[in-house]
């Protein structure tokens, strides 16, 4: 079992420098080291929905962008997505900051965050742009992801572009997301015995799939990444397990969070993964690891593969940070127990 920090790139510097860089960027054009280039596609529209998030729930979020000239000059570039969390405790939300990549000996930095003295937490993400993820005719681009509404009061999101030559466009206006104060419905959580966090993600055909839609069945939520050798080893085992028990009310949801290149997962990647291993159960795209972190009990780490069994009432009954076939006997015994209840 391999432990990954997170799948996207970031800029991790000292807390003072990071806060200074964030403050300076409010002007939109004076970000340190950033020189806006008029030839780079410009941001014509940017929106986030919904803006009011349900507390103690994994909310299904859409980021919508529209760029000038259909982004024709941006092939090979990146979209920089900036999340600034506001929390009295200065806590992270759904993306955990790993140790410095330089300290780990990595040549390329990874996602990270620093906490400012006033409780702000800026997180910088770079999302690689290819022709497959935006509409070149209209310049429109959408991203969907799960977001756990805990440990924050508001989040400000803004974006900017970097093309293949390293030049950038102007920064977008900020969009603010606010967490509701009151929880709706029964309390959900990540621990055994709790009602598991409900979530909605896109499958390989861009259809929304919701965990609670399978209430009344025993559900195995399997968290994987395409680069992970142990995830590959258990993929065929999962399909055999599904065929063995599906007639008795058993379902598997395979939640992917990185593709073969360690880039953010896309529905097209889910299709590739499902076809490679003959999976006939839903394979879902967990962009930014929002759903994974809602179930993860190991802060600042992302051990995969991991498996969670949820009973017919929606409660978490078993969790294991390991993979098939190593835990096959234990997992099957628990599945049989839950199916018999």
Task: Write up what this structure looks like.
There is one protein chain. This protein is an alpha+beta fold and 341 residues long. The chain folds into 2 domains: 2-183, Single Sheet (S-adenosyl-L-methionine-dependent methyltransferases); 188-340, Glutaredoxin. The protein is 17% helix and 33% strand. Strands 14-13-17-16-15-19-20 form a 7-stranded mixed sheet. A 6-stranded mixed sheet has the order 3-10-9-5-7-6, covered by helices on one side. Strands 2-4-8 form a 3-stranded antiparallel sheet. A hairpin with a 5-residue loop joins strand 19 and strand 20 (316-320). The chain is globular. It starts with a strand and ends with a helix.
Write the layout of secondary structure elements.
Blueprint: E1 2-4, H1 15-24, E2 43-49, E3 52-55, E4 58-67, E5 78-86, E6 112-113, E7 120-128, E8 140-148, E9 154-162, E10 175-183, E11 188-189, E12 195-196, E13 200-203, E14 208-210, E15 218-224, H2 229-245, E16 250-256, H3 267-277, E17 283-285, H4 290-295, E18 302-304, E19 306-310, E20 316-320, H5 328-340
Parallel strand pairs: 3-10, 11-12, 15-16, 16-17
Antiparallel strand pairs: 1-18, 2-4, 4-8, 5-7, 5-9, 6-7, 9-10, 13-14, 13-17, 15-19, 19-20
């Amino acid at each position: 079992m391999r432990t990954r920090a997170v799948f996207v790139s970031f800029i991790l510097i000292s807390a003072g420098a990071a806060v200074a860089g964030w403050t300076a960027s409010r002007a939109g054009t004076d970000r340190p080291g950033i020189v806006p280039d008029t030839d780079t596609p410009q941001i014509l529209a940017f929106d986030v929905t919904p803006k009011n998030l349900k507390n103690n729930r994994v909310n299904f979020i859409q980021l919508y962008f529209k760029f000038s000239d259909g982004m024709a000059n941006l092939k090979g570039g990146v979209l920089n997505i900036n999340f600034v969390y506001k929390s009295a405790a200065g806590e992270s939300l759904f993306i955990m900051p790993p140790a410095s990549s330089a300290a780990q000996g990595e040549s390329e930095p990874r996602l990270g965050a620093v906490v400012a003295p006033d409780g702000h937490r800026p997180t910088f993400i770079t999302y690689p742009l290819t022709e497959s993820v935006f509409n070149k005719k209209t310049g429109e681009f959408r991203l969907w992801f799960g977001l756990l509404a805990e440990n924050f009061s508001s989040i400000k999101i803004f974006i900017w572009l970097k093309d293949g030559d390293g030049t950038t466009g102007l920064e977008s206006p900020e969009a603010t997301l606010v967490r509701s104060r009151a929880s709706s419905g029964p309390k959900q959580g990540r621990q055994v015995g709790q009602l598991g966090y409900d979530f909605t993600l896109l499958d390989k055909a861009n259809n929304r799939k919701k965990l609670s839609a399978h209430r009344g069945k025993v559900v195995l939520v399997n968290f994987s990444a395409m680069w992970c050798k142990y995830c590959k080893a258990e993929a065929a085992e999962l399909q055999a397990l599904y065929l063995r028990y599906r007639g008795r009310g058993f379902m598997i949801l395979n939640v992917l969070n990185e593709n073969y290149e360690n880039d953010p997962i896309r529905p097209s990647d889910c299709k590739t993964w499902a076809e490679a291993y003959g999976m006939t159960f839903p394979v879902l795209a967990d962009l930014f690891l929002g759903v994974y972190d809602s179930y993860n009990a190991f802060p600042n780490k992302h051990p995969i593969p991991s498996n969670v069994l949820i009973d017919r009432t929606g409660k978490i009954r078993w969790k294991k940070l390991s993979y098939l076939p190593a835990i096959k006997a234990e997992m099957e015994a628990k599945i049989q127990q839950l199916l018999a209840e």
